[in-house]
Amino acid sequence: MSAPAHGDVARPNHLGSMPLYVDLRRIYNELAEAGVGAGDALPPERLFPFDQIHYRGTDAVRTAAETLRLSPSSRVLEIGAGLGGPARFLAHTTGCHVTAVDVQEPMHAVACDLTARCGLASRVTHVHGDALTAALPDAGFDAVVSWLAIHHMPDRPRLFSRIARALRPNGQVYIEDLCQRAPFSAADLVDVREMLHATTLTGAEAFERDLRAAGVKEVGLTDMTGDWAAFCAERAAAWQAARDRHVRVHGAETYARLERFFLAVRRLFEGGSLGGLRIVARL
Ligand SMILES: C[S@@+](CC[C@H](N)C(=O)[O-])C[C@H]1O[C@@H](n2cnc3c(N)ncnc32)[C@H](O)[C@@H]1O
Predict the structure, then answer these.
(1) The pairing of beta strand 97-102 with beta strand 124-128
(2) Residue 249 — pLDDT band, cuts 50, 70, 90?
(3) Ligand 1 centre distance from Cα of residue 130 (Å)
């Protein structure tokens, strides 16, 4: 069974039931473990080990900041901002202003809390909304960034035309997302639906085609598959090696849910059907 060249791979359950998103208390558990109390002020660095929901953590976001040459005058839109980790990292390290959009209300609420406690609310504006419909200013941004969010969205052409409209002329695009490298088996499709909650998972060419159709040019693609496969293997092994610690901090149910998730994603990468892309482009 293979996924269509473009469009729906699967119709996922409610996004909030994705294993990575179920227990958002995890970040507070980690802070408590580090001796940080509820409501305490937080240096952003304290959060960085826990608030990045993509591959290679802040290293990946630092590469984006350098590639985009972000500065305090840069206005950045982040699509699918999660807990706000990348947005806070960009604002904290470059001084840029970030508008961080996420569709999940609980995720948005945690992101707002963490950003306020880091003292970054004047530079990171969290918006609760669907990137396919939320109000965005025309030509309002110098750069649009996104990590591991676009595969969740059912209408990529619409998203890309909205991104193009939100960018100023010559504005930049920096995306990291999943792609499909080979037909998915029946077992793969179950994990793509139940674990990844992917609705749009295509080959790199279709991804690029959608961007170009929206008027985005100078599209540069980097295949991240090998690097992300290694990361996912290390992540699963590290999670299992620290089982007792994670069960104590997060509880047995959360431990087991994430173990299933990390193993499934590792399997998908190792099987060769799932891949990763970094896309750098310009309007
Ligand atoms: C894997 S997380 C990545 C979060 C963040 N980019 C990071 O790297 O830490 C993907 C995020 O995309 C968000 N998302 C999914 N569909 C969305 C949509 N249509 N509009 C806005 N956000 C969306 C999810 O709620 C989730 O927080």
Answers:
(1) parallel
(2) very high
(3) 9
Nearest C-alpha neighbor of 188 from the set 264, 260, 117, 256: 264
Mean predicted confidence (pLDDT) in 63-89: 98
Of 8 and 210, the structure prediction assigns the larger pLDDT to 210
Proportion of the chain above pLDDT 70, given as a percent: 95
Q: Is the CB of 276 under 6 A from ligand 1?
A: no
CATH architecture of 15-282: 3-Layer(aba) Sandwich (3.40)
| Residue 6, token pair as written in the block | 């473009």
**53 CA: nearest ligand 1 atom:** 9
Count of CB atoms situated within 10 Å of the CB of 83: 25
pLDDT at 3 over 80: no
Q: Is the CB of 270 under 6 A from ligand 1?
A: no
In DSSP terms, 178 is beta-bridged to 276
> What distance in Å separates the CA atoms of residue 4 and residue 236, rounded to the nearest whole number?
29
Report which protein residue has its CA nearest ligand 1's atom 12: 80
* Residue 14: strand, helix, or coil: coil
Structure tokens at 27: 């970040």
Read off the pLDDT of each residue in 98-124 and give the average, rounded to a whole number.
96
Asked whether 211 lines ligand 1 (CB < 6 A), one says: no
Q: What is the pTM of this model?
A: 0.94
Identify the pLDDT of residue 9. 40
Evaluate: CB of 107 within 6 angstroms of ligand 1.
yes
CA distance to 11, 44, 96, 131, 168, per residue, from 197 (Å): 8, 29, 31, 16, 32
